[in-house]
Specification:
Elements: E1 4-7, E2 10-13, E3 18-24, E4 34-39, E5 46-51, E6 58-60, E7 68-73, E8 78-83, E9 92-99, H1 107-110, E10 116-119, E11 123-128
Parallel strand pairs: 2-11
Antiparallel strand pairs: 1-3, 3-8, 4-5, 4-9, 5-6, 7-8, 9-10, 9-11
Length: 129
């Protein structure tokens, strides 16, 4: 069982920055892939970024590439999403998610919502123009 709690959301003007954090409980944190997803009002939840269990590899969606960076600290059981150059279209509820044990770190798997077993409650990010 993994419990996830996001923090760091808020409102910002276009071009600004926010840093989201996700605190995880459970002793398996350093063994699992972690992902960030977002869901805008009226739209489906979509992949944003993922990081391998060791933190050595990442995937970032094309829509945020070059602006968002995912990182993790296994000693502190946390994963973060640094968001720079924010745009109004980044407005959404952002969720962190824990991948199932043994999830291969390939694009096919980490982009797929169903491959994640545990989800945080979400944090709202609002970007105004």
């Amino acid at each position: 069982q993994v419990q996830l709690v996001e923090s760091g959301g808020g409102s910002v003007r276009a071009g600004g920055s926010l840093r989201l954090s996700c605190a995880a409980s459970g002793r398996t944190f350093s063994s699992i892939v972690m992902g960030w997803f977002r869901q805008a009002s009226g739209k489906e939840r979509e992949f944003v970024a993922a990081i391998s269990s060791s933190g050595s590899r990442t995937y970032v969606a094309d829509s945020v590439k070059g602006r968002f960076t995912v990182s993790r600290d296994n000693a502190k059981n946390t994963v973060s999403l640094q968001m720079n150059s924010l745009k109004p279209e980044d407005t959404a509820v952002y969720y962190c998610a824990a991948g199932r044990i043994g999830l291969p770190f390939t694009q096919y798997f980490v982009y797929t919502l169903e491959k994640y077993d545990f989800w945080g409650q979400g944090t709202q990010v609002t970007v105004s123009s």
